[in-house]
Amino acid sequence: MIPISDNLRFRRRPIVNYWLIGINLVIFLWEIKLEVSGELSYLINSWGLVPFQVSAAIKNALINPAAGIVVFWRLFSPLSAMFLHGSFSQILGNMLFLWVFGKGVENILGQWRYLGFYLGAGVITGLVQILVEPSLTVPLIGANGAIAAVLGAYVMHFPKVEIDSVLPLILVYIPLALPVSFYLFWWYIQQSFYGIGSLSIPPVGVNQPSLAYWMQFVAMILGAAYIRIWR
What we know:
Rhomboid-like fold, 10 helices, 9% strand, globular, three-stranded antiparallel sheet, mainly alpha
């Protein structure tokens, strides 16, 4: 199922949403270039979110305060990991959801508040992942947590909107109008296809099955709660 549009009309253009989508796409093109040159693994392992590295850096800082600079760098990884993606299907799926649902949330909150909401939701989701799985050594990358929060906020504010969608059946595409609540469910299902078109990231890859997948539910609740409080 592919969401296309919500047909809502807003007075302001979602400039921040456009910029977020553009930045993610440009960085993914850079990743493809690094994959060809064999440098992608270093980027992902350095700037992706590796919970074990963050938790180990915090433990070392408690023993040796001089190691605090390492903690600061590692705590930056939940933010940097949001702009890295591990496959063509992940970047396309995430950006499509951000395109459809992000513009409505930006018009609700305004540009700067929306930017802070998006980045904050992604970082908080990353920190929760560190707390839940502090020994995980596989890099976690992608804007999944931030976009899950955007989706939760959208459904909370526009619960009765229908989303124009397309059901692809090989060579036939069937147009449908689906309730927005359907995409709370479909968000998790479509991520099972995120392994399609994966980039080569040795030695262990990225985003292997873990509790991080379910931490996006926390992000959805966070997004819905924020919009409710803001209203």
